[in-house]
């Protein structure tokens, strides 16, 4: 069935994916162009729209008690803005040559084509699920969407045992380990890397490792999962590595995510080395005038390394959507790139990074010096001053800041924003030492820990020249 009905002079925007990037694009375009000029159709295969995927671990852990608090805008609110939002509708094919998409109504199973003048691909990312024995057994959960989070909570409510194994120790892995601890589970994290948080250098990841063990989490590093065992009822009962077997009543996959570009690949759209769609700075898919893409399904420019990266974060997705909506709506906006800033926490330990790790800098041919300093979140004499460790990388000869990693207690994580601004501005570590940051004993020492690291890096780069 072809739904590409006659629309007169009115254009149609079709959005594939109803979360941050897709619905931000739809909303921004609607603000600029009314329904008489632009029809907007949004197709979402799940039950929810415009929600915070980043908040799912905190909902699972009980910090957020109501699922609906994670929803920024309901389907009814979008429809009230003249957006034709169709839930439980899965797009099965993109046809850029003919300007149309095919979608299946998941309730009825019927399929139909919808034509477009502008297409937004916002299909997000999918959790990595290795093709190993038992990986699809009941009790094994990836966590990427609200539907995934609800499925995990349903499993926890129906499970008598209290043993959880988290596979992977990236952002999702450590956050889900904390969520399981808060749920009263005995938690084991099985990680293939030397240390948790591969987004940090191993020496900083070691700090996370020690803190997690101090919280009662069993860390198993340098361990490759070879399969999952199931019981007589078919449910998962253990995670197996080459060295050992770890009993599990529930398994959470925290291995990471990949761009969900299956449809884009089948349609012949350009993909990068990480599997994400390639766009220009206006978020238009390269070589396709009326096709746009944003969010976790695209690759972005790293402003520090000059390379393309896949950085799945809600902050970027919302910006991409705003930019796409502005351009479809007749305005003009661009996305310059990222510096790779991210923060997380496991219990009371805050973890932050921005810019390049040591191996990132080496991979793109940069020579650098690195320094590590230990300081506190407040003046040392002020009550509840918490420790933090700051690692900083600076380029040889130029002194250009290349990256910062921070691990510490309360007040540590958001300090990475200082470095993120400095990276975006292309500052040297010497220039950073003169930054006029706010100071009072309840907030920082006289020399903020980030500036202490900048001073030490300045001296080391100067000595190396």
UniProtKB/TrEMBL annotation:
Its cofactor is FAD. This is Flavoprotein oxidoreductase. Residues 344-446 form the Pyridine nucleotide-disulphide oxidoreductase dimerisation domain. Keywords: FAD, Flavoprotein, Oxidoreductase, Redox-active center. InterPro entries: FAD-bd_OxRdtase, FAD/NAD-bd_sf, FAD/NAD-binding_dom, FAD/NAD-linked_Rdtase_dimer_sf, Pyr_nucl-diS_OxRdtase_dimer. One of its GO terms (molecular function) is oxidoreductase activity. Belongs to the class-III pyridine nucleotide-disulfide oxidoreductase family.
């Amino acid at each position: 069935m072809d739904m590409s009905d006659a629309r007169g002079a009115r254009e149609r925007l079709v959005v594939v994916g109803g979360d941050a990037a897709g619905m931000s694009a739809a909303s921004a375009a609607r603000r600029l162009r009314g329904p008489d000029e632009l029809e907007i159709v949004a197709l979402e295969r799940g039950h929810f729209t415009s929600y915070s995927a980043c908040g799912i671990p905190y909902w699972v852990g009980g910090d957020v008690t109501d699922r609906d608090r994670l929803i920024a805008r309901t389907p009814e609110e979008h429809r009230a803005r003249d957006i034709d939002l169709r839930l439980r509708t899965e797009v099965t094919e993109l046809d850029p040559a003919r300007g149309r998409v095919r979608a299946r109504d998941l309730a009825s199973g019927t399929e139909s084509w919808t034509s477009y003048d502008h297409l937004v691909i916002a299909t997000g990312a999918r959790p990595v699920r290795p093709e190993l024995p038992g990986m699809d057994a009941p009790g094994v959960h990836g966590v990427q969407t609200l539907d995934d989070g609800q499925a995990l909570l349903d499993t926890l409510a129906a499970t008598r045992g209290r043993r959880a194994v988290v596979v992977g120790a990236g952002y999702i892995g450590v956050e889900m380990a904390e969520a399981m601890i808060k749920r009263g589970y005995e938690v084991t994290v099985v990680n293939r890397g030397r240390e948790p948080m591969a987004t940090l250098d191993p020496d900083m990841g070691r700090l996370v490792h020690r803190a997690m063990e101090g919280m009662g989490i069993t860390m198993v590093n340098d361990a490759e999962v070879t399969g999952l065992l199931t019981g007589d009822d078919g449910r998962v009962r253990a995670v197996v590595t080459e060295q050992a077997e770890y009993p599990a009543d529930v398994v959470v996959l925290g291995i990471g995510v990949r761009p969900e570009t299956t449809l884009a690949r089948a349609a012949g759209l350009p993909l990068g080395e990480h599997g994400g769609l390639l766009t220009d700075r206006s978020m238009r898919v390269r070589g396709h005038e009326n096709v746009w893409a944003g969010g976790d399904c695209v690759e972005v420019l790293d402003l520090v390394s000059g390379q393309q990266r896949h950085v799945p974060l809600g902050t970027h997705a919302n910006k991409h959507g705003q930019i796409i909506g502005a351009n479809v709506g007749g305005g003009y906006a661009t996305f310059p790139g990222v510096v790779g800033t991210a923060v997380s926490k496991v219990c009371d330990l805050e973890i932050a990074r921005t810019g390049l790790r040591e191996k990132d800098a080496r991979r793109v041919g940069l020579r650098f010096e690195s320094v590590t300093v230990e300081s506190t979140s407040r003046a040392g004499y002020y009550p509840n001053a918490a420790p933090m460790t700051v690692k900083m990388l600076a380029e040889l000869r130029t002194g250009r800041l290349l990256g910062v990693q921070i691990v510490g207690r309360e007040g540590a994580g958001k300090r990475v924003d200082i470095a993120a601004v400095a990276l975006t501005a292309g500052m040297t570590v010497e220039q950073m030492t003169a930054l006029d940051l706010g100071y009072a004993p309840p907030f920082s020492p006289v020399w903020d820990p980030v500036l202490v690291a900048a001073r030490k890096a300045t001296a080391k780069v100067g000595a190396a020249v």
